[in-house]
Amino acid sequence: LKPPKAYNSLQKGALIWDPKPLQVKKIFEALKKGLNEYLEAHQAELDYLSGRHKDTKRNSRLVRFLFNVKYLKQIRSVERYIRKLEFHISKVEELYEAYCIQCRLRDGATNMKHAFSLSPSTKASRESLVELYKNFQECTEDMCFIEGALEVHLGEFHVKMKGLVGFARLCPGDQYEVFVRLGRQKWRLKGKIETDDSQTWDEEEKIFIPNLHEKFEIKVTELRGLATILVGVVTCDSINFFTTKPQAIIVDITELGTIKLQLEVLW
Fold first, then answer.
1. How far is CA 4 from CA 1, 8, 29, in A?
2. Are residues 258 and 48 in contact, defined by beta-carbon separation less than 8 angstroms?
């Protein structure tokens, strides 16, 4: 976790990151649950293919041969994917366990610093405080690097634009711009309400890389000639998206819910 050149990006003598253990815990639990869902789904698929493979024994020799080739190939492919998922889960658990150890060490250093600060100042106590601050910094840096390593295992979010729902609020000819941000990642797309009430958008899908601390920020503006009118801004947590099934997201853009944005997120 700490190779010789791990801290080149840190400014010497300055702590530039702030770990967030509670947020990391929530993401870890959601991630592990989602990975286990994928594992259970592929295990069920493997059981099904194995059962079909056994059923071919009742057929003729040629049919058995053809089915064996087909099912064995599928079985091997699913088995490989299951092994990858199992390794993925073990790696995530290993990283989070290391993160929790550093978090406990950091909390211990904080508590000891507080205890020393309440006691009379001596040369020994001042030296201990300096050493505790150093330990605190090292634990904080380790936690931040583990957070970065954990983010590598979060996968991808495939976000699809499903359109705006506005009841009487949307009229033919209206043009809108939707801006979606996740940290430094941005997606800006424009859409128009057609005469048959259908909608056309210049883009339909975008891939976002999840991270531990950022939420989705969605802004909708109405385009009227050279002017733009802000319809609404909302934020959306990504914790619920770590699942095997596509998630339909319906977001109230206006306070009264007169315009809703429909997105679909596949992890």
1. 10, 9, 31
2. no
Which amino acid does the sequence have at 81? Y
- At residue 2, does pLDDT exceed 50? no
| Tens of pLDDT, residues 114-162 | 887 777 778 877 888 888 889 999 999 999 999 999 999 999 999 999 9
Residues 38 and 129 in one domain: yes
* Nearest alpha carbon to residue 248 among 256, 259, 240: 240
Residues 6+ away with beta carbon under 8 Å from 128: 112, 116
Helix axes 21-55, 123-151, angle to 10 degrees: 40
Q: Which residues contact 103 (CB under 8 A, 6 or more apart)?
A: 19, 21, 139, 143
Look at the alpha carbons of 165, 166, 170, 174 in this order and tell me if their dihedral is positive or negative. negative
* 134 and 163 belong to one structural domain: no
Task: Give residue-wise pLDDT tens across range 44-85.
Answer: 988 888 776 565 555 555 455 556 667 778 888 999 999 999
Cα of first residue to Cα of last residue in the chain, in angstroms, is 27
Please report the pLDDT score of residue 68 as a whole number.
63
Contacts (Cβ under 8 Å, ≥6 apart) of 163: 191, 199, 201, 262
Question: Which of 153, 186, 211 represents a domain boundary (last residue)?
Answer: 153
Residues 222 and 141 in one domain: no
Q: What share of the chain is helix, strand, coil (3-state, %, to 5)?
A: 50, 25, 25
Tens-place pLDDT, residues 162-213? 999 887 778 889 999 999 999 999 999 999 999 888 999 999 999 999 989 9
Spatial separation of the C-alpha atoms in residues 209 and 261, rounded to whole Å = 21
